[in-house]
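Posting this for the archive.
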Amino acid sequence: MEDMERYGDYNEQEEEAVPAQKNVVLTCIKYLLILVIVAVIALLGCRLFLFDYYPKAAKQLVMTESLRAYYDRTDGDVRIQTQDLRFPYDDIDLVTINSNDLGTFFADHLYVIDAIGELQITARVNTAGLESIGALYGIDADADTIAAKLTFRLTDNYGRVYDELVYCEMHSYAMYRYYKLAFDGIAFASPDDGQGAPEWIRMEILLEGEETPYSYMLIYENNEDFSTFTEYKPSSEEVAP
């Protein structure tokens, strides 16, 4: 009888071990799901961060030769304005005349120095967008090679062209390429042709050697619909010799 009783005890111990094994499997599944959720959230957070991120060198004001002369001439009493772009992306493909929003290029950090006719802007594009441009023009090259082949110019509502690009530097961060650009020769207040001041200015993106732009984006507005500007005070680092 004692052996039978002990045999019954062994059976109870074995039966109790089964739920414990099931709990281990469920726990592993639970932690695996948590890791997946955390990874997805981290990935989304990283993409959101990169979407609005501009490296410091790409978003700072650049002391071009004209701006340096203006700054020194006025002992630092310069008038620089900035504007929040209402449509900071390229909104038409001029090659296929596609009226849908492209969103290949984005722009930000506009600086307008009207006293010397200078405009600075930063454009951004990711490597996938560059590869799409390469495919469109039949260029078999990597993204950075295509990035080096891009050129920029400005046009306004009167059809005037501003292609005096006095500064162009490309910066890289993760999958994005940033172009720091400065244009001169813009008569913001009193153009010589008598047609009036620009009511809007757009930036056109072209492939080197092409006359027809790939796309364009609106980067400056001064009209009845929108004309909000704020004063920009450059940092000591930006104006340092």
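Helices lie at 2-51, 56-59, 65-73, 127-136, 143-147, 236-239. Residues 51 and 176 are 9 Å apart (CA to CA).
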